[in-house]
Design brief:
Blueprint lengths: L17 H28 L6 H55 L4 H11 L4 H8 L3 H15 L4 H12 L13
Amino acid sequence: MPSTQSAPGKGRLSPRLIGPIAVVALQAVAASYFVVDGIDDLIEQAGRGFSVEVMMECLVALALLAGVVLGARHLRRIASDLARADDALARARSALADHIAHRFDTWSLTRGESDVALFALKGCDVAEIARLRGAASGTVRAQLSQVYAKAGVGSQAMLMSLFLEDLLDTDPAAVPRRGK
């Protein structure tokens, strides 16, 4: 069966795998039953000769058993891929958070400006930021103006684009051209 360990929550079974694991387990129970039944039928008919029906039952039981083994191996690979993807996502989130903190430090944002800038990067408008921070809308507008000035941008969209540009390769020579 697949490993139940996945990053970042090592030791926990991913909820995305519970259904497939249950199906493979049910198939394993069914395969065990049919294999034992087939062996029992073969032993019973050993002295009288084997019938086509018993041979087909055994063949089906072995095919089901092979399906369980292949399904379990595939599920293990999926669990491993899922764990690697979760780990990569956690590293990317951490790297983005570190990059945002570095930019905020470079711009010398105050704690309040950093909070407001982070909410702006998350797509919140002035009213939402004011509500979330328990501050007046005018205060948030003033802090956003300071953030924009320190970052050298004129709007929330431009602030967001700074970070998007950092994530993308913005070297014009590296961007493939269409149609030529």
